[in-house]
Amino acid sequence: MSYFNTPAIKYEGPKSKNPFAFKYYNPEETVLGKTMKEQCRFAMSYWHTFTYMGNDPFGGATMYRPWDQTEDSMEKAIARVHAAFEFMEKMQIPFFCFHDADIAPRAATLKETNERLDVIVAVIKEEMARTGIRCLWGTTNAFGDDKFVHGAGTSCNATVFAYAAAQIKKAMEITKELGGENYVFWGGREGYETLLNTDTGLELDNLARLLGMAVEYAKEIGFTGQFLIEPKPKEPTKHQYDFDTAAVLAFLRKFGLQDFFKLNIEANHATLAQHTFQHELNMCRINGVLGSVDANQGDPMLGWDTDQFPTNVYDTTLAMYEILLDGGFTKGGLNFDSKVRRGSFEEEDLFLAYIAGMDTFARGLKVAAALIEDKVFEDFKAKRYASYREGIGKDIVEGNVGFTELEAYALEHGVTKNTSGRQEMLEMILNQYIMES
Ligand code: XLS
Ligand code: NI
Ligand code: NI
C-alpha cells in the first residue's frame, strides 16, 4: 500500500528546475571529511508531519490525509507509521523524532495507553528494520492533556507530578527500545502565568527532582542516549522556566545536573527569546552543551512559534558554522520541528517543504565549511584578540596579575589605540561566500 504519488526525491543539482528534486542536498557528497548525510543527520518530526491537520485558533482541519481515512484510532496509528516510513524513504531522511502521544492514541487509563504504545512500537521497529531509518530522539507529551493545566513537573498538584513521571518512564523505555540516540525534555507547561499564585522556588526544585529521577532511571534500565533540554521563552505559558540557553545552564548548574544534559536548540525558540539562532548555538558551543537542533524558522512579523520550514540561507549558514566549529553532530541532528502552512494542505506540500528545508541546510553547510576552511572569521578574531597572547594580556589570561599589578601597568602605559571591528566588511564577505561558494 502506498500513500504518496510523489516519486522518490533525488539530487539533481542547482541547475534543476524540478521542484521535486534536491538542488543542494547531495547525501553522498563529502563536506569537511564527512558526507552531507552524516553532517546533517536530518530527522522528520512525527507530530508536525503526521498528526498536524491544519488546525489553528480560528479554524479546524484543512488537511485530510489518505492515511487518516479510518475511524479506528489504532488502525489510524498503524497507517501513520507506514505512511511516515514511506515518506522518509522517499525523502531520504535517515531519522525521526516523536512524542509518545504522536504515535499512539491515548486511552482511558495509563495502563491501556502503555499497551497501545507497545503495539505501535512493534510496528515502528519492523519498519525501522525494513528501511534502516533510525530514531534520533523520543519525548513525552506532558503538556497537551488537561491534567497538565498547571504544569507537569512544576504542577502544584503532586499527583500530576507522579503521572508525568510515569509517562516519562514509559517514553524513556520505548525510546530505548527504538534505539533512540537522545531523549528530549521540552517543558511545555513548565512555567507560570502569574506570580500571585505561583511558588517558583518549589516548582523549580521539583523540576530538578524530576530530571534527577530521569537520570537515575536511565542508569537503571541502561539507557545511554543523551538527555536534552529544549529551551523556549514563552508559549504556552507566559513565562517558561527553560527560557533560553543561559537560563537552562544556570538551572542545571544550581542542581548539579550539568553533566547529564545537553541542549536541543530550536531556531524559532531562539528568536522568541530575542536571540539569534546562532547566538543560542554559540552559547551551547562555548559551554560544551550543544546537543541537537530543532530546525525551523519563525516569522519576524508574527510574535509566536510559527514553526516554519527553514528557507533562510543566511541563518542556516551561521547555524552550521557554529555546529561545524563544535566538531559537527555526534548524537544530535537536524530535526525539522517545522510544519507546512495551513494553506499548503496537499500531500505534495510535505515533500516540497522538506526539500526546501533540507536544501537550505545543505547550502548553509557548504557555505559554513568554506568559511571555516578559509578561516575567514577565525583569522579576523585571532588578530582582534592578539593582545591577550603577549605582554599584559597574556598575564591576565594566565592569572599572573591582580588589580595592584594592573593599576601599576595602567599608570605607566595607559592604553593602546583601539582598532575598527569592521562589521560591515565582515558582512560583505559573508554575503560573498553565501552567493559564490
Ligand atoms: C514546541 C516544541 C516541541 C518540542 C518537543 O514548541 O518545539 O515541538 O520540540 O516537545
Ligand atoms: Ni522543538
Ligand atoms: Ni517550537
Give the amount of beta strand, in percent.
5-15%
What is the overall silhouette? globular
Q: What molecules are bound to this protein? A: D-xylose, nickel (II) ion
> Structural class from helices and strands?
alpha/beta
Q: Helix segment count?
A: 16
Number of strands: 14
Report Rg: 24 Å
**Helix and strand pattern:** EEEEHEHHEHHEHEEHEEHEHHEHEHHHHH
Strand order of the largest sheet: 5-6-7-8-10-12-13-14
Helix content: 40-55%
User: What is the residue-mean pLDDT, rounded to a whole number?
Assistant: 98
Question: In short, what is this structure?
Answer:
Helices cover 47% and strands 11% of the residues.
Can you walk through the features of this model?
The chain has helices at residues 36-40, 46-50, 73-91, 100-103, 110-131, 158-177, 200-221, 245-254, 267-272, 277-286, 313-325, 347-373, 376-384, 391-397, 403-413, 423-436; strands at 10-11, 21-22, 30-31, 34-35, 42-45, 95-99, 134-139, 182-185, 191-192, 226-229, 239-240, 261-266, 290-294, 334-336. By secondary structure, the protein is α/β, with parallel strands linked by helices. It contains 16 helices and 14 strands. Helix 5 (110-131) packs parallel to helix 6, helix 10 runs parallel beside helix 11 (313-325) and helix 11 (313-325) packs across helix 12. Strand 3 and strand 4 form a beta hairpin. It is 47% helix and 11% strand. An eight-stranded parallel β-barrel has the order 5-6-7-8-10-12-13-14, surrounded by four helices. Bound molecules: D-xylose (XLS) and nickel (II) ion (NI) (2 copies). The site of one nickel (II) ion has 5 residues, from loops.
